[in-house]
Design a protein that fits this description.
Uridine Diphospho-n-acetylenolpyruvylglucosamine Reductase, domain 2; five-stranded antiparallel beta sheet; 458 residues; oxidoreductase (chains A, B); FAD (chains A, B); 18 strands; homodimer; flavoprotein (chains A, B); Uridine Diphospho-n-acetylenolpyruvylglucosamine Reductase, domain 3; seven-stranded antiparallel beta sheet; FAD-bd_oxidored_4_C (chains A, B); binds flavin-adenine dinucleotide
Amino acid sequence: MIPAAALAELSSLLGDRLSTTRSVCDQHGRDESPYPAMPPDAVAFADSTDEVARIVQVCARHRVPVIPYGAGSSIEGHLLAIRGGLSLDLSRMTRIIAIDADDLTATVEAGVTREALNDALRHSGLFFPIDPGANASLGGMSATRASGTNAVRYGTMRENVLALTVVTAAGKVIHTGTRARKSSAGYDLTRAFVGSEGTLGVMTEITVRLHPQPMAVSAAVATFDSVADAVNTVIRTIQYGIPVARVEFMDIQAVRAVNAYSKLSLREAPTLLFEFHGSEAGVAEQAETVQAIAHEFGGTDFEWASRQEDRSRLWAARHKAYFASLQLQPGSTCVTTDVCVPISRLAECVTATCADIDASGILATVLGHVGDGNFHVLLLVDPADPQSRERAEAVNARIVRRALDMDGTCTGEHGVGLHKMDFMRAEHGEDALDMMRALKRAFDPLNLMNPGKIVTLD
Amino acid sequence: MIPAAALAELSSLLGDRLSTTRSVCDQHGRDESPYPAMPPDAVAFADSTDEVARIVQVCARHRVPVIPYGAGSSIEGHLLAIRGGLSLDLSRMTRIIAIDADDLTATVEAGVTREALNDALRHSGLFFPIDPGANASLGGMSATRASGTNAVRYGTMRENVLALTVVTAAGKVIHTGTRARKSSAGYDLTRAFVGSEGTLGVMTEITVRLHPQPMAVSAAVATFDSVADAVNTVIRTIQYGIPVARVEFMDIQAVRAVNAYSKLSLREAPTLLFEFHGSEAGVAEQAETVQAIAHEFGGTDFEWASRQEDRSRLWAARHKAYFASLQLQPGSTCVTTDVCVPISRLAECVTATCADIDASGILATVLGHVGDGNFHVLLLVDPADPQSRERAEAVNARIVRRALDMDGTCTGEHGVGLHKMDFMRAEHGEDALDMMRALKRAFDPLNLMNPGKIVTLD
Ligand SMILES: Cc1cc2nc3c(=O)[nH]c(=O)nc-3n(C[C@H](O)[C@H](O)[C@H](O)COP(=O)(O)OP(=O)(O)OC[C@H]3O[C@@H](n4cnc5c(N)ncnc54)[C@H](O)[C@@H]3O)c2cc1C
Ligand SMILES: Cc1cc2nc3c(=O)[nH]c(=O)nc-3n(C[C@H](O)[C@H](O)[C@H](O)COP(=O)(O)OP(=O)(O)OC[C@H]3O[C@@H](n4cnc5c(N)ncnc54)[C@H](O)[C@@H]3O)c2cc1C
């Protein structure tokens, strides 16, 4: 419950941009995960950094939890208002503050989505590579340390965020980092906030690195007899240092889903989608080398998508794979896994996982940003059958255990939210978790910023 | 002063690996900066993570400051024992724990130097790119967030450290990160310690990313009529997205110094050194494009060093430029600047800086990792003449001011130490500095880890 005095202050600050309407609160108390909604008590739609600071100050004074909200596309229960409070929606903060093409940087408000940023960059010769399957906000992507299909070449939000404007838990406005490409000027506050999932403060402006649009692009699809052959092709590609821009894995079930949903006719087999960026000659050379590697592992049907439309269709289909998977069993929700392992262990990890899924009898698709050693299993769950969710969670727990045993991580890009909290001790150990708690207490002494996520304090 | 009881405990733990000898303490109380030594009260030579933990526990119990010591090559006063205490020398911890060639990672003890690591990698087909001019330790390099000539292509320690073993200020051993290439599993403890200059804990093991040795390498030297022409060539190269592996600037004075010291006969003019990595065809293509850009800016004498010996000689000379500069005025020490600016401002920044140096009458060389927007001025100082140091510091302060006005940083790679502390408020603002102080207090509540560096707490 938000105290009436706090609501009154917020309301006089925001007018009709403060809402306590049931449907608005419900929509802000859930994400794309199967968690049932836990709505906040109110939603504030902020317009500026200054306004965010005032809102946070009011909430701090009245001890009201604040949950920053970007595009709502997260999938680990990040947005659930488990202690009530205020959802602070940044989706109206959509100003593109600066595009410094000469410096390959852009500064945007937190609510700008990755698609909006790339639209704004269309005629600049530059692009912003990070592309989660959803049209997420730059604030949300920074907060979850997101990545996607291009990370193998261009890095994740960790590497691509240069500087931030942050409203701290005390409601102060700070700037972290500069537009210089590197710095050794003290503690890395930027990377303390990147990946902090709204638990340390609110990012209101984000400066990111941009990249020159490649002179040439080509894409290809290859299919394999086994999961191991496909994954081993990727491992070899990475070990050779080929600067592949994208390399995505789909298992048979995922190919089926994508074919049906996006009206493609890919061969139903373990599949890799490649994209190469560079000069004409460079792209041709990369593609040739990778094709040779794929052949070594029995890869067939190496098919080129050299026309821009074919490539767009292919990647659009890949980006819709999540919704395509859900349609394999209409009405279902899904438990998503997100482990990431050292690349040498990837074939073993994916193969064991596929066997595990088969044995479980759960309908699932496997999709992977495999160049980074990261893959997702989408385990379909019948929302009406609690046991189906439990069975899926059991598979997820085994997948995580397997990844940790291989010196990997429980989440490569989606974040902890609520769903991965149980694995934090196993991954980091109690003493490292204590350091995380110390950091949380130092930055948010009242435990009001998205409380109860990442680590608990009690 | 270290209490006698503490010394006794340390001595029974370490035997003759604890030293209070004057010369040993003096040597550990200084670095390569012009600061006069401020020796610690004792020096401990640790052999293992476990031993580091015990040493830190003893020091915490007795409230003894601990200053981690790697190779002693830092240049901002990092190692001065301004509050006495114990220098914790890690240079004996030189085990290469694992080289996982398949995963492109290595795990080493903190005392392993970059040259030792690359020696160990010689036959693996891999290398570790980060190369400060000195043969620094991986622990020290992590602690200063170091980079060097290759960072423009391969990133800095920020991007290349995957995981750490850290002894916390309380003497606990924690592991941060995993060998997975990316992770969203909570706060980024790894990057909290990278760049923390010994003020948050002691890194005892470091897991770094390795990179495939390029199939082909070529290097070239080009000279220009003006500083601006040279720098603009670099700016254009970066803006075109050419993945140049190294691009280093030397002003006329630096060329003179290098010629004299390393017996080269480079033309005395503003100079760029390039290195290209890739396939045979890729390297040729990059070199051609860059040569065309250089020509546009009047670059001449584009000279190729295609033989490995010539390249090695060239880069060895560049790496010795610091000592070569000192020899321009034998007996001198030097004040080093280390600003880094957005690349579009680089020509303006370097040109204004050169004019400033000329006007000051100080003998100085300008050297730069210009692909990142980072450059150093080595201002020669007569140790017998305090005013000469003051004049140099005044130039440094103006250079920093200029860089900050351009949205740059006071230190691109050397770190804060003592020497850059005065600029921290101007760069970050008081409220961001307060967040750094909060982080320091959270991780080191007794303020015993290299106290008085980066930020002061009182
Ligand atoms: C179909 C689909 C595909 C996906 N594919 C990928 C993928 O390939 N890679 C990937 O990484 N993710 C993927 N995701 C997950 C999701 O898109 C990312 O987590 C994304 O970064 C969330 O951004 P958002 O704007 O939707 O944030 P939200 O969901 O609104 O919020 C996410 C978290 O960030 C916090 N937050 C939001 N904005 C701010 C801010 N300004 N300041 C501080 N904290 C803030 C919130 O409190 C919350 O904890 C996918 C999701 C879907 C539904
Ligand atoms: C000639 C010359 C050229 C240089 N060129 C470059 C360059 O191109 N790029 C660049 O980045 N730097 C350069 N430097 C600076 C220096 O080499 C780097 O700062 C280097 O990273 C220091 O490493 P070190 O092992 O010598 O650390 P030290 O000097 O021993 O220590 C540096 C700091 O790190 C802390 N520290 C050391 N080890 C640990 C540990 N294990 N855990 C926690 N804290 C620790 C110390 O307390 C201290 O604060 C140069 C220096 C010289 C003398």
